[in-house]
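For this section, I looked closely at the sequence of one protein beside the tokens encoding its backbone, which the following lines show:
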Amino acid sequence: MNKTVNQKAWFFVLPVVALVAFNAIIPLMTVVNYSVQETFGDNVFFWSGVMWFEQVLTSSRFHEALGRQLFFTFTILIIEVPLGVLIALTMPRKGPWVPVCLVLMALPLLIPWNVVGAMWNIFALPDIGLMGRFLNEIGFDYNFTRQPEDAWFTLILMDVWHWTSLVVLLAYAGLVSIPDAYYQAAKIDGARPWAIFRYIQLPKMKRVLTIAILLRFMDSFNVYTELSVLTGGGPGNSTTLLSIDLVKIALGQFDLGPAAAMSLIYFLIILLLSWVFYSLMMRNEEQ
């Protein structure tokens, strides 16, 4: 029996393809165009080849910003993923407290990024901020506007407060999907809490944790608004991550060629590291 193939469904996809092309492909081609050309104004461009890429890749400024970016990304992943799983394990599975806990977890995610940066900026001010004033009162010499270590502490604390909830909600979704039969069998076998977590809960959460890690990794590499409002990359350049440095080059210095080359390198780094993360996690899951 011959099946009738209907290709009309592709007409519903065309608007999406056109939208993606307009919002992604065309701007990307513009960036590629700037990355291989030089201009001295009046909309006159000269071919420069890979000069800007060489300049960025050999620049100590880029290497330092990349090092700070990697430190920030892996620090928050090490903190937020285990903390999110721990909080999800303590949340109730049934009863009236479930919606209360879910709403409380979702609240930080609903706050606009610029508001988060402004909140923590005020909260951490050493003279009038609640946290800054408290830390100084108990004996710490805390001033995130002048001391790089304090700026990093505040930045990481802000990100943990803002984004751990995402890991919590994803991990909780994985936990509530586990059938009660697994827990009943473990109870009959006399399994301890650690054994239940290792052999029942953690395997069932692997997929959602993979999604959580990838989302947090990519988002941490793109962090800009909260960081810009909180420290602006300071004091000095101590918290100048790749996104802050890219904006400084593109808008502050108006060096469009190096900024375009850096943005493409930036994009490829995120793409490559995300692929490595995903491949390693899927390989571990298959094993």
Remarks:
- Residues 134 and 140 are 9 Å apart (CA to CA).
- The longest helix spans residues 60-90.
- The chain has a mean pLDDT of 88.
- Residues 60-286 form a domain with the MetI-like fold fold (CATH 1.10.3720.10).
